[in-house]
Design brief:
This protein is α+β, with helices and mostly antiparallel strands. Helices cover 14% and strands 32% of the residues.
Length: 159
């Protein structure tokens, strides 16, 4: 019975976290929720972050790398990350990726997973299209709303 209650609490926290991230302005770097004693922390990315202290690694050092990867042209649609986390192209290590370059996707089709706070969040296509480029390598950190997969719109004659 306690496991069922724990799952219900976790489900509630997940829903609240997703709603909170969707409602907040700017890219959220981290959300920390706690049910007992009611703790809520939100951390935003700060473009003008202070210099790191000597002997420490900057907090966002590993997260900045994906931002430098290629982005789709402005007129080309892309599937974007729903949360900050780690992007995976396949459901498990060694499995075939959800999609590959050349595949035609439909709206709502799962094209990847972003792991955030030990939760696996499905990444779904928002529109039909042909995958023309995978913009983020498997297992790499991603930002909220970062383009992950570039699409070419599909016309009635395609796919």
């Amino acid at each position: 019975m306690a496991d069922v209650e724990s799952e219900q609490v976790l489900d509630g926290l997940r829903r609240q976290a997703r709603k909170l991230v969707a409602d907040l302005a700017g890219p959220v770097r981290r959300v920390r929720l706690r049910s007992g004693e009611s703790v809520l922390e939100v951390e935003w990315h700060d473009p003008a972050a202070p210099a790191p202290r000597a002997g420490t690694e900057p907090v966002g050092a590993r997260i900045e790398e994906p931002a430098r990867q290629s982005a789709p042209p402005v007129d080309r649609p892309a599937v974007r990350s729903p949360v900050v986390g780690t992007f995976y192209r396949a459901p498990e290590p060694g499995a075939m990726p959800f999609v590959a370059v050349g595949d035609v996707v439909r709206p709502g089709q799962v094209v990847g997973i972003v792991e955030a706070m030990k939760l696996m969040n499905e990444v779904t296509a928002g529109q039909a299209g042909r995958v023309v480029e995978v913009l983020v390598d498997d297992g790499k950190p991603v930002e909220y709303d970062q383009p992950l997969i570039a699409l070419e719109p599909v016309t009635g004659q395609d796919g």
